[in-house]
Each structure stands twice: as C-alpha cells, then as structure tokens.
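Section handout 9: paired folding examples.
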Amino acid sequence: MARGNGFAHRLYTGDLSFDIVGRRRTWYTFTTVLLAICILAIGIRGLNLGIEFRGGADFQAPTAVTATTVDEVRGAVEQLGLPDNDELTVTTIGDGNVRVQTRSLSVEEVAQVKQAIAGQLGITIDDVAYSLIGASWGQQVTQQALIALFVFVGLVMLLIGFYFRDFKMSVAAILALFHDLVITIGIYALVGFSVTPTTMIGVLTILGYSLYDTVVVFDKIRENVVDLTKSNRTYAEQANLAVNQVLIRSVNTTIIGVLPVAALLFTGAFILQTGPLKDLGLALFVGMLAGAYSSLFIASPLLTDMRESEPEMKEHRARLERRAARSKGRTVPAQAEEAVASVPLLVADAEPAVDPENLGLVSAETLQERHRAQPVRQSRSDRRK
C-alpha cells in the first residue's frame, strides 16, 4: 500500500507534478547563460590541446614500473630546465614502460632528455625510444572526428524522425545534443584539462547516452498525446506529465552511470594526475550530467514550443480556453445555490415559481401556502365511487 502511494508512483499518475515544461522560460534563460560562459571560455582561454594536436616529442623507455616511477622520471626531466616545458606529461604503459611527452625539441634538447631518462632508470641512452609527433596528425584526427560527428547527427535525425513520425522531435533532440557538446568542451576550457584523442572518444561516447535519455522522454510524450485534440488537456500539460513520469527513471539511470565514471575521473585526476583516465573521465562525467539535464529541461520544452505553434494545437488550446470561459460564466454563485437548495420539492400540480403580478421570484413560504390552499384532486376511480 505504501509503495502505491510512493513518490515515484505519485509522479507517474500525476498526483504530484513539477511544472517543468510550464517554466521553460526559466530553463532557457539558465541554459543561455551557461552556454555563453562556455563559449566565452573556449574563445578567451582556448583549449589545452595535447601534443597529438599541436605536435611534440614522445619518449618511451622500458622499466619495471613502481608507484614512484612517474614522479622520479618527471623530476629528472624537469631538472634540465628546458624553456617552455610546462606541458610535460609522464605516464606509464602497462607494467614495463614509461612515456614522456614534451613540446617539440631541438636536436640538442632531445639528447638531453634521453640522457636524463636513461640515467634515472638505469638504462642506456639507446634504450630510450624517441619519435616526433607532427601537428598534421592531430589535424587529421580532428577532421575525421568532425566528419563522424556530422554523419552521426544526420543519421540520428533520420532515425528519430522515422521512428516517431515527427521531424520536430529530431530537431529538438539534436539541439539538446549540441548543448551537451558545447557544455562539455567549455568545461575543458575552464578547467584546463588536455584535449587528447581519448577526450574525443569520450565526447563522441556521450552523444549516444544523451540521445538515449531524450528518446525515452519523447516516447512517453508520444504516448500521452495520442488523440490529444479529443481531450481536455493541452500539449504542454501532457508533455509535462510525461517528463514527470520518467523523471525518477532518468535520475536513477544518471546516478548509476555517473558513479563509476566519477571513480575513473578521481583516479585519473588525483591519483595518476595524468593519462587517458583523466581525459576520458571528465568528458563522460560532464557529458552524462549535461545529457540528463538537456533531455528533461531542454529537449522536451523545445518540442512543446514547436508543436504548440502548429495551427491544430493553437485551435485546440483556443477551444479549451473558450470552453473554460463558458463554464466559468455558467457558474452559479454560492448564495444562489443555497437559496435553490432551501426550496422544497413541489408536486407537479404546484404553481410556477414566478409571480405573474410582480414577475419576480417568490419566497419558499409563499409557494408552500399556495400549495396547501389548492384543493386535493381526486382520481377517476374515487370520483366514480
């Protein structure tokens, strides 16, 4: 019994409802401010691109990795005092290799770094592998990622439009998707995390998660608006009901998905302090939260605005408003209802309640007196007797 009266059940049945769609102007304002901050951060601070995108030097050396390997190798390279070497990155590859990534170096600087790494690890300088990463490789990765993004968006729009038979749902879903991308990239610009190919993998991954949450909400909206013009509720009311019905599910799904991602982010940012876990964790963490928000507070309100701008929906809303106005006009005042209720039920032969002389309503006492004064009519059987 308690389960039937629970919070989630009350949301699903509409007994308890948050006016999410009705307050869409508030969400639009908040989202606009948030997007403006992220866009300014990208334009002013810029993105901290990894050496895969800006070019640099990559060193790899074999060693038995321990808990102090990364710090020891980093310290050995920093002691060289190379200029403009703030983007030094030291990571481990498995249990038997260490990787050092720096900016592009001259021939003399390459030799110094190799000597420092070899001396720290106790190996020969020839055991330290060196490779130069050009910026053109990063440009190729970026180009391929953008192509994949636009192909993905196009296919998703066709799929959603075909599945729901509503192209407006495709537009709302894609706008919410771009919201998630801008927020995620803006956070990278604000916190200064490096943007690597791993980051791009994380960004592309959140696209599917965001769309999944949006499709769940849209599916419930489609179910609620069947034969809407024959009901006494507007599209906004039914859409808001759908959002409330999936609210608990969306929150639970987001929490379950974010918890392991938060563990990855914590490990990469605070324990390892570098590497793919850090880059991937932040993209997934921010993207999943942004996707859950946009599905409920961006996609659904946008769809509602687009659908309620249709002539059919405008006519339906106007019809409901006229019906409500007529019902309000026919409402009997409370005093009149009490007066009518106090008049006793009269027999069919009683006189009408309108006085022909005054053409006004007579009191209940007058009606009762007139009724008692009328002779009692006998039935035909009584008259024959």
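Moving on to protein 2 of 2.
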Amino acid sequence: MRVGVFTPLLSHLSLPAVLKKLKALQIDTVELGTGNYPGDAHCKLGMLDDASALVEFQKILADHGATISALSCHGNALHPDKVRAQHDREVSRKTVLLAEKLGISVVVDFSGCPGDSPQATAPNWVTCPWPPDYLKVLDWQWNEVVAPYWIEHAKFAAEHGVKIAIEMHPGFVVYNPETMLRLRSIAGPNVGCNFDPSHLFWQSIDPIAAVRVLERVIFHVHAKDTQIYSANLPHTGVLDTKPYTDERARSWIFRTCGYGHGGEWWREFVSTLRMFGYDDVLSIEHEDSLLSPEEGLTKAATFLNSIVIREQPGAAWWV
C-alpha cells in the first residue's frame, strides 16, 4: 500500500513542479486527469499522435522517479446531449489508448447518467421507485443506454489491456455497491470500481463494510473524507443540494483525510482493503472547501503517511 495524489488540485503547476512538490511529501505516485471533469493539465491526449511529446512526458516521470497509478477521465458518456456524450466518449476511448501506450492498467471514469427519454436534454438521476414513472425511466436508462454503451466500452478497454474503475458517485447511475455490481454483471469483469469512501459516508453507507461487499472488485482508491453535521441533518437529510461552499448550512461536506474520521478509522479502512484484495495506491483527492489545496494536500499526505508505510522486506506495512 502506498500514498499517491490525484493532481487536478495542482493544475496551476507544471508536471515537473508537481512531482518535485510531491517528492518533498514522500509521494512519488500520481493519478493524472486526461480531460472531461478533471481537465488535462498534466497529461495531454495529444501525445497519442505526438511521439516526441510522449517521450518527453515519460522522461519527466523517470527523472523524478514517479509512477502513474491511473489515468482519469471522469465524464458523462451517457449524457442526453449527443454532442456532449460524444465528446466524453472520445476522451474515454483515447484515455484507454494512452494508458495502453504508457503501460498503465487502470482508467478511472464515471458511469454516466442518461436523461429520461430519447428526447431529454439533461441527465435524470432516479432515486426512488414511486410514482411508477421513475421505475420506467430507470428501466429505460439501464436497458437502452447504460448496457449498450458499457458492454462495448468495456470490451474495447479489455482489448487494449486496460481495466475501467468506475467511481461510485450520486448523480450517476452507479453510485453505491449495488449499482456497481449491477454494471459489472452487465459489462463484465473488466469493469470494477474506484473506491472513494467520502461518497459513501454521505449516503449513510459504511465504507469499511462496503469494501467487504466489493471484494476483488476494487481497482483503485481515492483518499478523501466526509464530515457529517448532525445539527443540519433534520433540515435536509443527506440529499443536500446547497453549494459545497455553504458549509454552515450543509448537512455534510467533503473533508481532507483525518478531518471527518480519525486515524483509528483510516487504519481499519486500509487494513480491510488489504484483507479483501486491494494492496495498491491511496490517491489523495482534495475537495475540502475549508482548506486550501496546499494545506489540504500537506495535511492529507502527513496523515496518511503516518498510517501507511511502504512495504519493505521484513517490515510492517502499517503502524
């Protein structure tokens, strides 16, 4: 097990500057965005057709002793806006091809969310079974949009030696372990999950219990926390649509690792991950609106480095 960083929080810096900064925090593994929601500040898909740019990119990594845990292209390939969907699909396909060229085995993505019909213009995330219109929408989404795309895209990725790690996130059709396993049953074993505990906390799902449910299905892990504000829960429950920056009024917000749950919880989380087959990277993702990217990154790195120790012969892997 080792600590890495998802680099969009450092998009204002060049890749060499990012790697130098992370090295000072005892981190030499990065997750890089290639477009869609994460942007492509540190990894351009144009390298697919530019051999010299690809060589230079690989030299930068080698010079800093850095490795890549995953390429990430979180988007909505199922968006009812066909232009938007095609754009996100193209980014996803090219990301798979770049991962193959770089020898990276995992690409992180969202499952996407369709509209409620072929005439829709915006995604429609269904969260309840009644009135019965909603179940009809859900059946149409999965049968007519989700399954055809993911069967094809999973096959494409497998042909290029790349696994797809779906980040379970409310707002998309895959948002919890049940929907993750449903997609995997449709698309096959080349589709697994990017496990982000922060997205489960605010749904009242115990992430440690969820690791047991998703045994051998976890391909990549984000390190991010959530803090629940019980004083505000009676107003909204967990389905809170206020802006993330309205921290005082929200029922929950994303936090830097250790600010929502302490070291005891994170030690158990890391232990359970390894117990159930995941022994790879914890990729720090910063979305804490109360801490600057600099402060959030530094605190998360220090916190996780005190819990996870790089495995060496004869050495314990955690403290």
